Amino acid sequence: MNKLFTLALAAAAAFSASAADYQVYKDGQLTEGIQYIYWWNATYSGDTANPDGDGKVFSAKATDGGTDFSMGFLAQTDITGPLHSATLNFDWYATGTGKFTVRLTASNSTPEQDYLITLTADNAGKWNSVSLPLADYFPGVATLWDDYAGDGAGYVFSVIGAEASADAEIFVNNIVYTGIDEEWTAPVIDRAEAPTTVPVPTQAAEDVVSILSGAYEAATTFNIGGWGQSTIAEAMTIDNAPVYYVKSFNYLGWELAQNVDASACDYMHVDYYLTRGSSFGFTPISVGQEKANNYNDLTMGEWHSFDVPLTYWSNVNFAEVYQIKFDNGNAGEGYIANVYFYKKDNGGETPVDPVDPVDPVLPGATYNGTAEGSVDQTMNDETKTYDYTINYAVTYNADKTLTIKATYAWPNGEPVGLVAGSVFVNGTNCEFALEDGVRTATTTDTYEVGALVPLNFYLPMALGTVEKSIEYTVGSSNTTGIDSIEAENAPVEYYNLQGVRVANPENGIFIRRQGNKVEKVIM
Q1: Are strands 366-379 and 2-5 parallel, antiparallel or unpaired?
Q2: Least C-beta-crowded within 10 Å: which of 7, 128, 287, 352?
Q3: What is residue 67's three-state secondary structure?
Q4: Do 113 and 467 meet the contact criterion of CB atoms below 8 Å apart?
Q5: Phi, psi for 387 (deg, rounded to 5)
Q6: Model's pTM, two decimal places?
Q7: Domain 2-178 falls in which CATH fold?
Q8: Which CATH number is 366-473's, of 2.40.128.50, 1.10.10.10, 3.10.50.40, 2.60.40.2450?
Q9: Distance of alpha carbon 453 from its chain centroid, rounded?
């Protein structure tokens, strides 16, 4: 159950931290172990003149004078655990009109919980002080911090501008956590030992376009992209081979110094060794084009070698690859090695070409589900519980995007300050369009059958946000197709989680299709 409190905000003197408190930022000084990272359209500075006094403060606004921007204060590691029981304190000053959001997240960005600031004639143009107990305002994040998700990494303060005027700017100072758990100790985490050897590629050098490998000359250098990831990445050498160590791994972007032409190649190869977690994914990127390629249920303590046909990424222009993205880390830990493209006619072993790589679910198939919850809202010292139901339908479109329709029901009345909801799909905000009581969101990403897609429904209200999260597996059994087929008269087909048909499935997880009935099975 979520707890939302409607509080009056009052101006107060700058906060004075004690030795037991944790200071994130104060008077132009960012604490060691914290760094600024922007996600979208943000101009920010930790060295801005105080708009109403002396000293330096932090400021943020949209780069182009638009309405939306986002950036965060990322704790690199070993910080968030003791903060799980704390109260977040900060001072803010804003100009213009509209709304700003303060967000906290764990390292894998799930959940991400918000505190909404709405500019009014009473609070704009002056300093305001806020104190937010994490247990009340950010309970999901507090739980993950206590569980040491991501080894203590996470966003301990983020600023997001939405529905703000072109001249809107927010200033922040005295970001301090009080009441931290000084007795907190990190739990023992199940992890494997680091590798001592690295796989040696067998492809002939003339057939390879290499990005990272000790066996081949690199086609280009690269930098770690500033994409807002919480991943901590470090280049190192193991067994005389270059590798990248990743920790608190949600995703990692490589910005190539020059575009790479891999159009003559047939496969992309990546080696990954897990020391914590069970999942991994990667995609090459040309301008505006990428495609998720995720693997789950991987084994810790061993190298996993992936050889993916470039035909899988049918939307990517391989003559101009300019980024590589690794994702699906789920706050895990591991080592990346031997990232390269290659022709299949070479001296090494050649992966089997996929057979009939069609989607084992008809375009238009829809998954229907229901999510229930409740929220407590306290006003004037009186607490009332509001139950709600979200009925949703997820449609798999012909272009492999998802359309989500949702209706919200409040059987005993709506909370005060309820506004239109939205949905996050894999961390991307998809605003709902409302028509006849049905909210529809179409994602901008493509999804393969078998992909596990988190749907996080958000309902902003008053000074907080209700969040309800479910997971949808593309191709789930609860589907209805646009063309009905009687399952008992249809042939049975099996596919792997990348949508490739498998003639004789065994020893793994597969998608089983018979007519319009699609389900995950373990063989």
Answers
A1: parallel
A2: 352
A3: coil
A4: yes
A5: -85, 150
A6: 0.57
A7: Jelly Rolls (2.60.120)
A8: 2.60.40.2450
A9: 11
| CA 317 vs CA 132, 207, 260, 306, 494: distances in Å | 47, 19, 10, 20, 30
Q: What are phi and psi of 313, to 5 degrees?
A: -95, 65
Domain residues of the chain, as ranges? 2-178, 205-342, 366-473, 490-522
Domains 2-178 and 205-342 agree in fold:
yes
Indicate the fold that domain 205-342 takes in CATH.
Jelly Rolls (2.60.120)
Structure tokens, 240: 């005389």
pLDDT tens for each residue of 5-28: 322 222 222 334 455 799 999 999
- In whole angstroms, give the CA distance from residue 108 to residue 118: 27
d(CA 472, CA 443): 14
Distance CA 388, CA 102 (A): 25
Q: How far apart are the first and last CA of the chain?
A: 38
pLDDT exceeds cutoff 60 at 485: no
Q: Report the alpha-carbon distance of residue 85 to residue 83 in Å, rounded.
A: 6
Q: Has residue 236 got a pLDDT over 70? A: yes
pLDDT at 108: 58
Asked whether the beta carbons of 424 and 458 are under 8 A apart, the reply is yes
Q: What is the pLDDT of residues 89-130, one digit of tens each?
A: 999 999 988 889 999 987 655 567 889 999 999 999 999 999
